[in-house]
Design goal:
- By secondary structure, the protein is α/β, with parallel strands linked by helices.
- It has 26 helices and 27 strands.
- It has an 8-stranded mixed β-sheet with strand order 3-2-4-5-14-13-10-8, sandwiched between helices. A 7-stranded mixed β-sheet has the order 16-15-17-18-25-24-23, with helices on both faces.
- Strand 17, helix 24 (646-657) and strand 18 (661-665) form a beta-alpha-beta unit.
- The longest helix is centred in the N-terminal third of the chain and has 29 residues, at 207-235.
- The relative contact order is 0.09.
Length: 806
């Protein structure tokens, strides 16, 4: 009985780890790693307590030593979601290799290896998705048969990961169970109706579908696994055990084949050899279509791409503008990247041949477009991208959660982990139709394609913002690529990646993308190579089930080594290393209690906007480093929840002495985090809430000309001198004789303190296009001029904007 309980506990561990990786995906990467590692340790501890102890100390040391290394790997060296799951699979493989006499554990080890291999193959070549697409089509037709409308559900929506998990366990247990084809078909008949019943109302495609789908498939996986356990126990004599056979030529051959297949698969997914070529940092941008290069100022709103050329130049790219309708060979002969943004024009066939030659010789065509054929860009761009198997749909892609975070799935190339964690800047754009070997780079796992409405001219042809039967549900392609000769085509169904606050996406999105695009496509990027490798992996997985000796360890180890090596070789990017005296750092390392643009509570988007309007750059400082902050123009703390103490406090004091400016927006509700910093300046925020304070309490246009604080608290001096009498303090804003904004000089710099945690929120300064508090905007402008020594009038455009198409 102990053996059965131990086996069931390990089966539950596999399923629970996979579920945890999905359910906890909206959390931060670090939090998810700790959760998954804790679950793995808990289940292994359970297996240790209730199971058979190792035969000797040597075996015990091997098992627990391996476990220790794996936990360390998960916690510190797993850079992406794939690596996280990979460590889980590798853990099962190694433990099953050491405990070979455990039949269920051996089945779990083999099954997990098969599951991981099959789930990765879908990213190598589109042809490998055919069986899953057929499953989705079958179930969609069954659902449609009971409804008036059409249902189009993807395999991701139906949970093909758990479907794969079930069949992997069954396939790896075939020789143990003596299963016949009728039993396998019975399992299929039992599992296929489950999503059909789940989706009995296809028009209700929302967050509940995600939860119910996961619960349903989890239940199905557990039922099948328990059936496997009891069938094994009933059909295999108790004295029979699966022992390791002596090594022979066939076993060694299989080990080499599986290891080599894993290495090639890992290298191919990560585009390993692409980064062996030196980058060519010359970018040509076609200056036609629905784009503009206006920089934001305090007098006028900015354009969508005004900041882009400044950042490209800052990071070493040579940028040239093609300011002609026709793209000639001479205008792109020295370029490595050709960028088209909302390029709405009629393309001449000879012009398309010029672009085609550019790609085939090793260049990258990087295309950004928007939703529902605005500006006529769908008709225009499809003339170009359609030649390479990628077309814009007349739709817009919508997420099911509060944003794309937790709804995206990215390819396991160099971009996967960071793009899933931080989102590649995608908002609401078109989804893409793929053919001719094109493959997705970013997929909306939990999203739907909202068909456009041609009659909605005023509303940019957008649909009704909700799922309708007949629209694709789940797994919509948002970013795609195809390899043509030595070059590649990369298409984004949205332009938000390069818009506005591009600095927030530099490290994790823009710079890695451009670094990849600035090199010719490697041999392993070729779609035919990827297709061949996917077939090789399928063959290896099939052979794996017939070879009980290796049990998938060689295949998984090969993949792990290649994947990790490719990640280490891939260039890393640190924009903070290039910060200068025109940079403002946002101290995220102190866990600021703020939201992003899609959150209602304390979204500090206006702060970023005001910094950009000042002609400055901003970077989010996620880890405090003395050498990083010492050259910045200012460091900002908005509603920090982590106290400023120790070395960080010492660095800040020295930074101020050397001329740096510390900007703090915090009320008494965040006093604990800034108390030590304020004590260095003999200041304190009193526990006397003042509420919302402004020029007067009557809402009027006149009132908006003056500053306003949403949650003000009085600032007092902790020494014997009153705050408005101190020589080192300048009171900048006060209400009812209470100081609310002050500047305290220290050395050559000082502390600029605003006693309102929500001062920079969209509710208090600006939220285009409907809200703007002019008094706060001008107040911050004067603060920046006086203490950051900016010249707003010097902010000018870098490129001339084209005329917008009608």
């Amino acid at each position: 009985m102990n053996e059965l309980i131990r086996s069931i506990s390990l089966g539950l561990a596999v399923v629970t780890l996979l579920i945890a990786d999905n359910w906890f995906f909206p959390l931060s990467h670090e939090t998810r790693r700790v959760i998954v590692s804790g679950i793995g340790l808990a289940f292994l501890l359970l297996w240790w307590v209730i199971g058979t102890q190792p035969k000797n100390k040597s075996e015990s040391a091997r098992i627990w030593g391996t476990l220790f290394l794996l936990v360390i790997g998960v916690l510190f060296f797993s850079p992406t979601r794939s690596c996280l799951v990979l460590w889980i699979v590798l853990f099962l493989q190694i433990v099953s290799f050491f405990r070979k006499e455990d039949r269920i554990l051996a089945a779990l080890g083999g099954g997990s290896g098969i599951y991981f291999g099959l789930s990765r193959i879908s990213e190598l070549a589109p042809m490998s998705r055919v069986p899953f697409d057929y499953l989705a089509s079958l179930i969609s037709n069954v659902v449609s048969a009971g409804h008036d409308g059409e249902a189009v559900f993807s395999t991701g929506t139906l949970g093909f990961g758990f479907w794969l998990l079930i069949w992997s366990f069954l396939f790896s247990s075939y020789r143990f169970l003596k299963l016949n084809i009728s039993l396998l078909l019975s399992v299929a008949v039992l599992t296929l109706p489950i999503p059909t019943c789940l989706l009995f109302k296809p028009e209700v495609y929302d967050k509940s579908i995600i939860l119910l789908r996961s619960l349903t498939w989890t239940f199905a996986a557990l039922i099948v696994f328990f059936a496997v356990c009891f069938f094994i126990r009933a059909n295999v004599p108790n004295d029979e055990s699966i022992t390791r056979k002596p090594a022979n030529g066939r076993a060694r051959t299989w080990a080499v084949v599986l290891f080599a297949t894993g290495v090639l698969c890992g290298l191919s997914i990560c585009s390993f050899d692409t980064f062996l070529s030196p980058p060519t940092k010359h970018i040509a941008i076609h200056n036609r279509g629905g784009l503009d290069w206006k920089r934001p100022t305090f007098e006028k709103p900015g354009g969508m791409f005004g900041e882009l050329p400044f950042f490209l130049l800052k990071f070493g790219y040579n940028v040239s503008l093609i300011d002609e309708d026709y793209i000639e060979q001479s205008s792109i002969k020295d370029a490595q990247i050709l960028i088209l943004i909302n390029s709405a024009k009629d393309w001449d066939e000879s012009e398309l041949l010029v672009v085609d030659e550019f790609v085939k010789r090793g260049g990258t065509l990087l295309v950004f477009g928007d939703h529902t054929n605005v500006f006529g860009l769908q008709d225009s761009l499809n003339q170009v991208t359609g030649r390479y198997g990628i077309e814009f749909k007349f739709d817009s892609g919508y997420y099911l959660r509060s944003g794309w975070r937790g709804c995206l799935s990215a390819s396991s190339s160099f971009i996967e982990g960071v793009w899933e964690e931080h989102s590649p800047g995608i908002a609401i754009g078109a989804s893409l139709n793929l053919f001719h070997g094109a493959r997705p780079l970013v997929v909306g796992r939990y999203g739907h394609s909202d068909d456009g409405v041609k009659e909605n001219v005023v509303g940019s042809f957008l649909g009704n913002y909700k799922y309708e039967p007949g629209e694709q549900a789940g797994d919509i392609s948002l970013v795609a690529t195809n390899t043509i000769g030595r070059g590649r085509v990369v298409v984004f169904g949205d332009t938000s990646t390069l818009q506005g606050g591009i600095t927030r996406r530099l490290k994790y999105v823009v710079l890695p993308l451009l670094d990849w695009c600035s090199r010719p496509a490697g041999f392993l990027e070729n779609r035919w190579v990827k297709t061949g490798l996917s077939l090789a992996v399928l063959a290896a997985l099939f052979g794996l089930t017939a070879n009980r000796v290796q049990n998938g360890l060689a295949l998984t180890c090969g993949f792990a080594i290649a994947f990790t090596a490719s990640f280490l070789i891939t260039p890393s990017h640190d924009p903070l290393s290039k910060t200068g005296h025109n940079t403002v750092l946002i101290a995220n390392c102190n866990v600021l209690n703020v939201g992003h643009y899609n959150m209602d509570v304390n979204a500090i988007g206006p702060l970023y906007s005001l910094i950009a309007k000042s002609g400055l750059h901003y970077y989010e400082l996620n880890r405090w480093k003395t050498e990083t902050v010492e050259n910045a123009k200012a460091i900002v703390f908005v509603a920090p929840t982590k106290p400023i103490v120790g070395t960080q406090l010492e660095d800040i004091v020295q930074y101020e002495e050397n001329g740096g400016i510390i900007l703090v927006a915090a009320g008494h509700d965040h006093l604990r985090s800034v108390a030590e910093l304020l004590r260095q300046h003999n200041l304190v925020i009193e526990n006397r809430p003042m509420g919302t304070v402004t020029h007067n309490r009557i809402e009027s246009a006149e009132n908006r000309r003056f500053p306003r604080l949403l949650d003000a608290w009085p600032i007092e001096s902790t020494n014997s001198i009153k705050i408005n009498e101190r020589r080192d303090v300048k009171v900048l804003l006060e209400y009812s004789d209470e100081a609310c904004v002050v500047f305290c000089r220290k050395g050559l710099g000082g502390l600029l303190l605003i006693s309102d945690s929500r001062f920079f929120s969209t509710r208090n300064i600006e939220k285009p296009p409907y809200f703007e508090w002019e008094g706060n905007i001008q107040f911050v402008r004067h603060l920046f001029i006086e203490f950051l020594h900016i010249d707003p009038d010097s902010v000018t455009d870098y490129f001339p904007s084209p005329e917008l198409p009608e």
